[in-house]
Amino acid sequence: MSENTDLVDTAVQPPVEDGRGGGPRFGDGPATLRADAVSAWFGDHKVLDRVSLTMPARQVTALIGPSGCGKSTFLRILNRMHELIGSASLAGRVLLDEVDIYDRGRRITHARREIGMVFQKPNPFPAMSIYDNVVAGLRLNAIRTGREGKDDLVEECLTKAGLWKEVRDRLRQPGGALSGGQQQRLCIARSLAVRPRVLLMDEPCSALDPTSTRRIEETIHDLRDEVTIVIVTHNMQQAARVSDNCAFFLAAHGTPGVIVEHGGTHAMFNSPQDERTSDYVNGRFG
Ligand SMILES: Nc1ncnc2c1ncn2[C@@H]1O[C@H](COP(=O)(O)OP(=O)(O)OP(=O)(O)O)[C@@H](O)[C@H]1O
């Protein structure tokens, strides 16, 4: 196959140019993600019970709730990472623009490419250059693009992740040499390079200092037209600052996690319908 091939996805569907000269694009932009009656188990321990939630396109949805109520498990179900754990099982459906990502005909790699994930601890490939970190996902997803396309893509993704100006003169230096906050923005850039339609973030700032946290929050704000975002956070101020919608999870006394209340973030914080939501967002427990 020629190196000049713009993009070849041998796995699933033909590529679509995005018309911005920035390289490949597989989806049709930000998508709505909908969980329908999702339950989850580790062995015979049920940790989520019939959770339904719509995460609208081009919006940021925050998942909040005390430790152990199943937020991360729910997030991992949204891009088929839960099934990697041997004892794990689930029921229900996850629909990306109304297409079930768990349909038998759909590949796990396809779901992962369309629904990216940024983790709590920044996890760039430390010895790999900043440039190669950004394009690493292309190879992993069997996406080919020419050198020029890669250069454009690296600049575009680093710009979107709010890192370009800081690293443009040292793209060949190792990703591991960046600060923690820069590494996290590099991981966001890496996720964006495969043009996800949804980006999941699992406490992306919990390992970062306040300045780096603010930069990530600005990045999240700037990305909302690019990609639908679902973020798990323990930081109520952060949820209030970055999200349009919130879902409050709770697992009471050893019962599986459920969503107690969800809705617009402003309403959830200022006029919650459920007393438990009010107690949680006002710091009275959790
Ligand atoms: N790999 C695993 N094997 C077995 N049980 C697990 C595993 N991962 C999570 N659990 C259990 O599932 C439940 C939900 O955990 P989960 O990490 O999803 O909660 P969480 O709300 O994200 O918590 P936190 O806010 O502390 O990260 C907990 O009871 C936890 O112990």
Automatic annotation (TrEMBL):
<dbReference type="GO" id="GO:0016887">
    <property type="term" value="F:ATP hydrolysis activity"/>
</dbReference>
<dbReference type="InterPro" id="IPR003439">
    <property type="entry name" value="ABC_transporter-like_ATP-bd"/>
</dbReference>
<keyword id="KW-0813">Transport</keyword>
<dbReference type="InterPro" id="IPR017871">
    <property type="entry name" value="ABC_transporter-like_CS"/>
</dbReference>
<keyword id="KW-0067">ATP-binding</keyword>
<feature type="domain" description="ABC transporter">
    <location>
        <begin position="33"/>
        <end position="281"/>
    </location>
</feature>
<keyword id="KW-0547">Nucleotide-binding</keyword>
<dbReference type="GO" id="GO:0035435">
    <property type="term" value="P:phosphate ion transmembrane transport"/>
</dbReference>
<dbReference type="InterPro" id="IPR005670">
    <property type="entry name" value="PstB-like"/>
</dbReference>
<feature type="region of interest" description="Disordered">
    <location>
        <begin position="1"/>
        <end position="29"/>
    </location>
</feature>
<dbReference type="GO" id="GO:0005524">
    <property type="term" value="F:ATP binding"/>
</dbReference>
<dbReference type="GO" id="GO:0005315">
    <property type="term" value="F:phosphate transmembrane transporter activity"/>
</dbReference>
<dbReference type="InterPro" id="IPR027417">
    <property type="entry name" value="P-loop_NTPase"/>
</dbReference>
<keyword id="KW-1278">Translocase</keyword>
<dbReference type="InterPro" id="IPR003593">
    <property type="entry name" value="AAA+_ATPase"/>
</dbReference>
<dbReference type="Pfam" id="PF00005">
    <property type="entry name" value="ABC_tran"/>
</dbReference>
<protein>
    <submittedName>
        <fullName>Phosphate import ATP-binding protein PstB</fullName>
    </submittedName>
</protein>
<dbReference type="GO" id="GO:0016020">
    <property type="term" value="C:membrane"/>
</dbReference>
